[in-house]
Amino acid sequence: MQVRTSSAFIGALLLLGALTGCASQNSVNQLPDNVVLAEPERAEFRYEIELARIAQMLGEDLTQEQRAELYYRRGALYDAVGLRTLARMDFTRALEYNPRLADAYNFLGIQYTQLEEFDYAYEAFDSAIELDPEHRYAYLNRGIAEYYDARTELSQEDLEYHLEKEPEDPYRVIWLFLAEYENDPEQAQISLEENSEKLDKSEWGYQITQLYADKLSKEAFLERMTRNLGDSEKLTERLCEAYFYLGKYMQIKGDQLEAMNYFKLALMTNVYEFVEHRYASVELTRIRHALLNR
């Protein structure tokens, strides 16, 4: 699921059969069975051209608003290719020139969430919502920050509000389920089934909800995850989503080591713009910390 600023990149398919113990004796480093790998995405050439043009334009005589927009655009491009520190610097510069850029605050909130600097994240998301109360993604992103900050009741409120805006979006259903599961696993399953009834069963995201509802086995999910790619959908995007949500599913099932492997697979896609890629690294850090402190 993308925090949309631009299109993602093209990957090439490589199918692998079931892997046995020939990989590594360490189960943390073994790939799960029947995985599908894709060549990691590469930055499009046009991104490099646009970055060069923006750098040139920033040296010209501009209004405050024009300079803010250019810094914001360059920050979004840096973010799209995984240069998060440079992106954060440019979003901050954009707000210095125009402190009313809600999208820049939203991006900063996401990045502070990834750094687990939650106070800064909330400040940024609150600013985005104050400037644009109908912002399409700020409630989702604030809800995710609250989820990772263990403020699950607040997270549930934000994610419920976000789902109300588009009840047919499966990813909104999934994130609400994850927040609800922390508070009441039984009620979360009931809500998941109710919310899933409003979804288009032919959409890819519906398969994820069925996995979480235990109506689809992990093996069947893996087998279906490369089917029926849409005209504008890339394999790497599908795999990034699938492996992240498989990682969360394995956490629910209590298998942290296999969850870790799926989060690594999500990161291998290099789909930097997707929520799933952004938080796979957070999940990995937390699992490693938990394993070291057992």
From TrEMBL:
<dbReference type="InterPro" id="IPR023605">
    <property type="entry name" value="Lipoprotein_NlpI"/>
</dbReference>
<protein>
    <recommendedName>
        <fullName>Lipoprotein NlpI</fullName>
    </recommendedName>
</protein>
<keyword id="KW-1003">Cell membrane</keyword>
<keyword id="KW-0472">Membrane</keyword>
<dbReference type="GO" id="GO:0005886">
    <property type="term" value="C:plasma membrane"/>
</dbReference>
<feature type="signal peptide">
    <location>
        <begin position="1"/>
        <end position="23"/>
    </location>
</feature>
<feature type="repeat" description="TPR">
    <location>
        <begin position="68"/>
        <end position="101"/>
    </location>
</feature>
<keyword id="KW-0449">Lipoprotein</keyword>
<keyword id="KW-0802">TPR repeat</keyword>
<comment type="function">
    <text>May be involved in cell division.</text>
</comment>
<dbReference type="InterPro" id="IPR011990">
    <property type="entry name" value="TPR-like_helical_dom_sf"/>
</dbReference>
<dbReference type="Pfam" id="PF13181">
    <property type="entry name" value="TPR_8"/>
</dbReference>
<comment type="subunit">
    <text>Homodimer.</text>
</comment>
<feature type="repeat" description="TPR">
    <location>
        <begin position="102"/>
        <end position="135"/>
    </location>
</feature>
<keyword id="KW-0732">Signal</keyword>
<dbReference type="InterPro" id="IPR019734">
    <property type="entry name" value="TPR_rpt"/>
</dbReference>
<dbReference type="Pfam" id="PF00515">
    <property type="entry name" value="TPR_1"/>
</dbReference>
